[in-house]
Design brief:
With 308 residues, the chain is α+β, with helices and mostly antiparallel strands. The protein is built from twelve helices and eleven strands.
């Protein structure tokens, strides 16, 4: 099964990468090779390539050191440029759009067991709630330098010969990274407290709509159902969601259904009929028509396009 680690290591870093592992933590980096980029034969094929969607099994943190890369995170697209930092929470659905072959990233994949022990659970949960609302932040020069320096120390400590102190050093450096990032997010949102206490009504509606779609997309695709759950008239709900997000609710629902269909088709355990059943379509042909209208190709052709 495809994982975010595979995506990062094979699709985004097909050359000059370093992968460092310790139980609960994976570091993938090209940060030291950004001045001598040499693309392999056929390397230009990665330009404008969209990776297959994957559901993350760990917290993933991406820091862009140079170039740029776009990422669809739970259907919303973000573009990372120099000194941008993206948080990808566990159980998110992510697709990478590589348009710059010279992109340089540091990727940290962190398991729940690697949570900094010196940070209280209350503060830890508050931090994760904040990054759920602000997944992309731009680091100032000082914070970016502190992050790169600390990450280098972290990599060095893990790459050295393993001894009883390796895990403790890694956790200590992760705590420092965590604190730098928490400070950056806090300063990035000077109004963070007010953001939680005075959320605009339209944002509340959009957030509630996304939560409902996540719960019911496999069985309900009619806008009226979601408007009723929001206690709003369908016309008003559509207007608010379109003005706030730039898309109609039907578009968001369809994107979520198609995203799940792609995940199921590519995991190697479901055929087209099973995917159709899982998503509540009355027949395989109805699912095929729905999928092709949204993507331009049939489910079977999409499946075959990845050599499966």
């Amino acid at each position: 099964m495809e994982t975010i680690s595979n995506i990062l290591s094979r699709h985004i870093y097909p050359y000059e990468r370093r992968i460092t592992n310790i139980e609960g933590l994976t570091i993938i980096s090209t940060i030291d090779s950004h001045l001598s980029r040499i693309l392999p034969a056929g390397g230009d094929e990665i330009i404008s390539m969209v990776s297959r969607p994957v559901r993350t099994e760990q917290l993933c943190m991406l820091y862009c050191y140079g170039g740029q890369i776009s990422c669809r995170l739970n259907m919303i697209e973000y573009t990372l440029r120099r000194d941008d930092f993206l948080f990808i929470r566990k159980n998110s659905i992510v697709e990478f759009i590589v348009s710059d072959p010279a992109v340089n990233l540091v990727g940290l994949l962190v398991s729940e067991g690697f949570r900094p022990v010196d940070v209280g659970m209350k503060e830890y949960l508050a931090f994760h709630e904040l990054i759920a609302r602000t997944p992309l932040v731009h680091l100032d020069t000082q914070t970016a330098k502190a992050f790169v320096d600390t990450c280098s120390l972290l990599e060095d400590s893990v790459q050295r010969q393993r001894d009883p102190f390796t895990d403790a050093f890694a956790r200590a450096y992760m705590l420092v990274l965590y604190l730098h990032l928490a400070r950056a997010i806090n300063s990035y949102n000077d109004t963070a407290v007010h953001f939680y206490t005075r959320v605009p009504r339209r944002i509340e509606i959009l957030t509630a709509f996304f939560d409902l779609v996540e719960k019911h997309f496999s069985s309900r695709r009619d806008v009226g159902f979601y408007a009723e759950k929001l206690c709003l008239a369908p016309k008003y709900a559509s207007q608010v969601i379109r003005q706030t997000s730039g898309k109609m609710p039907a578009d968001w629902i369809r994107e979520r259904v198609i995203l799940e269909a792609k995940l199921l088709l590519l995991d190697g355990r479901h055929n087209v009929q099973q995917v159709s059943d899982a998503l509540g379509f009355p027949s395989q042909s109805a699912f095929g028509k729905y999928f092709k209208q949204a993507t331009g190709i049939s489910p079977r052709d999409y499946y075959k396009s990845y050599g499966l």
